[in-house]
Amino acid sequence: MKLPPAAPDGRKLYQQVAAAVADAIQRGDFAPGQRIPSERELAEEYKVSRPTIREAMIALEVIGVVRSRHGSGIFVVDNPPLDAPTISLDIGAFELTEARRLFEAEAAALAAVSITDEEIATLETLIGDMERENLEHVAGEHADHEFHMTIARATRNSAVVDVVQSLWEARFRSPLCQHMLERARSVGVVPRIDEHQTILAALRDRNPNAARKAMRDHLARVIDGLLKATESDAFERARAEVEAKRTDLARRVAV
């Protein structure tokens, strides 16, 4: 299998990979019920990163072409769609978080030299809100979003604010990104309080280098967390645990 040249319609890399795999399934290269090659094998074949392969496989799972099986890998569904599906789930969480890491690290460094005491106090309050949202399992990560936007606004640069806001809007708008984040939340991935406190400490010290490093480290760990959370084993394990709890609850209610 070879990845076709970049599509003239500007499709993202994961969309090209997903479309190529879907075409292979249509041609009969992979039969219904057959296991798809591993992420490592596909990454070598298509000359792309494993996160790109992960996004492509999740996209195919969302549209009903493949399904993950606990401990076994990714398999073609028994009745895959006859027509090659249009992969139009927009940007994935890995690509988006990588872009955030580039822009928001520099935004944090710039904010460190102009942030006010009032904005520092706002960030402290938002970390408290994050803790509450984590405990209450509040979806949407509103406090996390506002924390990062407060830092962007502290740069006193409207272009920086617009870029950071556009990245967050893409995060909320993309069906694939939302699906990946929901999968992450289902296995316990939530905004990390200690990492946000490290960012806040660097900003409080007005230290640009420390602020840049704290933000880069934080978003690198977000990527690592997404990689672990979207592994088929992790997702299937969480789904099995939920199913076991549901069965136990039904048994107790029936007593």
Describe this structure in words.
The protein has 255 residues and is mostly helical. It has eleven helices and two strands; from the N terminus they run αααββαααααααα. It has a two-stranded antiparallel sheet. 33% of the residues are buried.
Protein topology:
Blueprint (H helix, E strand, L loop, with lengths): L12 H15 L11 H8 L3 H13 L3 E4 L3 E4 L16 H19 L5 H20 L5 H12 L4 H16 L1 H12 L6 H12 L3 H22 L2 H23 L1
Antiparallel strand pairs: 1-2
Helix content: 55-70%
Supply Rg. Answer: 21 Å
Instruction: Choose one word for the global shape.
Output: elongated
Please describe the biggest sheet, giving its number of strands, its sense, and whether it closes into a barrel. Answer: 2 strands, antiparallel
What is the average of the pLDDT values? 83
Features:
255 residues; two-stranded antiparallel ribbon; elongated; mainly alpha; 2 strands; 3% strand
Give a brief outline of the structure.
This protein has 255 residues and is mostly helical.
